[in-house]
Structures are given as structure tokens and as C-alpha cells.
Design a protein that fits this description.
FAD/NAD(P)-binding domain, 362 residues, 8 helices, 19 strands, alpha/beta, 2 domains, 5-stranded parallel beta sheet
């Protein structure tokens, strides 16, 4: 433990059975099952409303799963089940979900420390400007999208090149100047953002790894994935281990749409920055750029967790969400248990299982 833990005065301490940290889809699903089991709990989030991570994403975002495969437990998506919801529809759904079930949601509660309570079982959850919570159980549901990650060579680009991570990208008008833009990344967000910018007519250089697999994103494919059990195969099963070792596919339709833009040029996987402000790819090199959008993923930032449940790389150490700290678990991480763990589709099943395991504690 990095520093001694003291219990605040009674006036500044809120006692509850369970604290859920994060009010995105994973935290809301956990809240549903805690309510079903009549557990006294608090749902905390640093933002002023539930689903805030979705509200901050880019304007043109759409879910990669249809509404029928994206709902949380106890409340299906409204409207056409075959529809692929937009960013704003997803945000509205999550906020409606929290309000519908009247969860004990406490917004504007940024957690600054999670530590073992001194001289008694349980944990203390300290917040920046609110109370400290004493709880027997803690569910960390802050999700995988915490700290943006960029290549180690990104700082080698000259200052004249504007750099923006996809976490902060919302629309093409944010990008300065009329000059060429590079979008770096080999995931679905990179394809959607590149198409978003290409639609304005600006030259877009797409640093995309051509070996990335692509799959259709249609109703038959989703029916097959669900019925065949590919999304729910645990990473600890033979099938799950095979799937876990493969690169994440992108949507073939999004890739095809981007290739139709004459002003979108694919340069292969990005490998280096050049002194003139260009990016070198495995297939081609860009001209000097005005802007680079890094759609290169995230890395964890759990420095506020003062428990021996993190690896040397900062990633949580867990088995299907459960940690070595009795009563502490994670939800909403990539491959927490299966491919769907970080998706809306998987929030409910993971939450049901993890909550049930935590409630077995004496």
C-alpha cells in the first residue's frame, strides 16, 4: 500500500454493501443485478450523467451491433430491433436505463483511491470532492477506454502537425487547415473517422494494416455469431483461446466504403514519423501533413487502485473479472471473459455472473 489508510469522520463516510465505479454499460448492468438481489449499493461516476463515455465519442459513430443484440438486462432497445443505433441514441438509451430503474446513482464522483479499510474487512473508496465510501464489495466498471495510446515515435512529428487522438475527435471541422490528414489505426473507429474526413473532400491518408481481417456486419452474421456461441466463448475455453489469439476484425462494409473515396489513400501500417511532417507506411509515405488522428487504442490507468491486483504492465490481474482481493472485481474490459465482454451485448451476462460470485462472500 502506497500510504496509510485512515477512516474519515462519520460525517464524511458513506457506508454501503457495494460500490460500483463507472456508470457505462458494464456499471449499469451490475447495478441491475445488485438491485435484483436487493443489495444496498452506490453507483458512482466522474461525469454528470450515465453513459458519458458514449456522449463524448465522434458525431458519426454507430454501434457495430444491431439493437436486438445490444440491449442491457431488463430493458430492450426501443424502436426497430434491426436498427444500428447512433452515438446519441446509445447515450440516450443508457441514461434512460439508469433513470428507469432509479439506481442510486451519484454523478460527479471522481474516484481518487480504492484501498483496503484499516483494521476491518472491506474497502474505502475515496472521491475527489465528495464523500468516502466504506463497502464490503467494489466493482470497477470504468471500462477499457481510459488513457489514449499513441506510437512511441509520435512526438517526432514537428509541432506544425496537429495531433488528435480518436478519443477527442468528434467531427472534421475540428481539424485545422485544408491540408492532408492521416488517420492511423487498424480498427473500426479508424475506418469510420477516415470516411468522415474524406467526405469533406480533404486528402486522407489511411495508415491501416492490410492484414487486418474484415467481416460483414449484417443481420445474418449477427444471428450466426449469437447462435454459434462465438461471442460468448470464454477465453479460458479451447474455442475462446483460439479466438483470443486472432486480430480483431473490422467491418468489411466500412472498409469498402472508405476505399470508394478517391481522396482516401491507403499507405499500410504506419512505421515512423519523418522530419518534414510526413508518416511512413509499409506501402507508401504521406506528404507533409496538416493533422494526424491517432485511432490507436488505449492503455489502462489504474494508479488510483491501491491494492495488489494490478500487473507490472498496469493491467488488472483477474480471472473472469474476479481478483485476489476478496470482494473486488472488474467489469467491461476487453476479453474479461469473452469477445463480447467490452460490448453492450456482453455487459449483462458478465455482470450477472460476477455479481453472483461476489454475493457468495460470507
Amino acid at each position: 500500500m502506497s500510504e496509510s489508510t485512515t477512516i474519515p469522520s462519520a460525517a464524511a463516510l458513506v457506508r454501503t454493501d457495494t460500490v460500483v465505479i463507472g456508470a457505462g454499460q458494464a456499471g449499469l448492468a451490475a447495478a441491475y443485478y445488485l438491485r435484483q438481489n436487493r443489495v444496498d449499493f452506490r453507483l458512482l461516476d466522474a461525469a454528470p450523467a450515465a453513459g458519458a463515455a458514449w456522449a463524448a465519442r465522434y458525431d458519426s459513430l454507430r454501434l457495430f451491433s444491431p439493437a436486438w443484440a445490444s440491449g442491457l438486462p431488463g430493458r430492450p432497445w426501443p424502436g426497430n430491433p434491426l436498427h444500428y443505433p447512433t452515438r446519441d441514441e446509445t447515450t440516450a438509451y443508457l441514461r434512460d436505463y439508469a433513470a428507469h430503474f432509479s439506481f442510486p446513482f451519484e454523478p460527479n464522483r471522481r474516484v481518487t483511491r480504492l484501498a483496503a479499510a484499516p483494521d476491518q474487512p472491506g474497502y474505502l473508496v475515496q472521491t475527489a470532492e465528495g464523500p468516502t465510501y466504506a463497502a464490503r464489495r467494489v466493482l470497477v466498471a470504468t471500462g477499457p477506454f481510459t488513457t489514449p495510446r499513441v506510437p512511441a515515435w509520435a512526438p517526432e512529428l514537428p509541432a506544425a502537425v496537429a495531433q488528435l487522438h480518436s478519443r477527442f475527435y468528434q467531427r472534421p471541422a475540428q481539424l485545422p487547415g485544408p491540408g492532408p490528414v492521416a488517420v492511423v489505426g487498424s480498427g473500426n473507429s479508424a475506418l469510420q473517422i477516415a470516411a468522415d474526413v474524406a467526405a469533406t473532400g480533404r486528402p486522407v491518408f489511411v495508415a491501416f494494416d492490410e492484414t487486418t481481417p474484415a467481416l460483414p456486419n449484417n443481420q445474418p452474421m449477427w444471428a450466426f455469431l449469437v447462435l454459434a456461441g462465438l461471442l460468448r466463448a470464454s477465453r479460458h475455453s479451447p474455442l475462446g483461446r483460439t479466438l483470443f489469439g486472432r486480430p480483431e476484425p473490422v467491418v468489411s462494409g466500412d472498409l469498402a466504403q472508405l476505399r470508394r473515396f478517391a481522396n482516401a489513400l491507403f499507405i499500410g501500417r504506419a512505421t515512423a514519423a519523418l522530419p518534414n511532417g510526413a508518416i511512413q507506411g509499409t506501402r507508401a509515405t504521406t506528404p507533409p501533413l496538416a493533422t494526424v488522428v491517432w485511432a490507436t487504442g488505449y492503455q489502462p490507468d489504474y494508479r488510483w487502485i491501491d491494492l495488489p491486483i494490478l500487473g507490472a504492465d498496469g493491467h488488472p490481474r483477474h480471472h473472469r473479472g474476479l481478483t485476489a482481493a476478496p470482494g473486488v472485481a472488474f467489469l467491461g474490459l476487453d476479453w474479461l471473459n469473452s469477445r463480447r465482454s467490452a460490448l453492450l451485448n456482453g455487459a449483462g451476462p458478465d455482470a450477472r455472473r460476477v455479481v453472483a460470485e461476489l454475493l457468495k462472500m460470507p
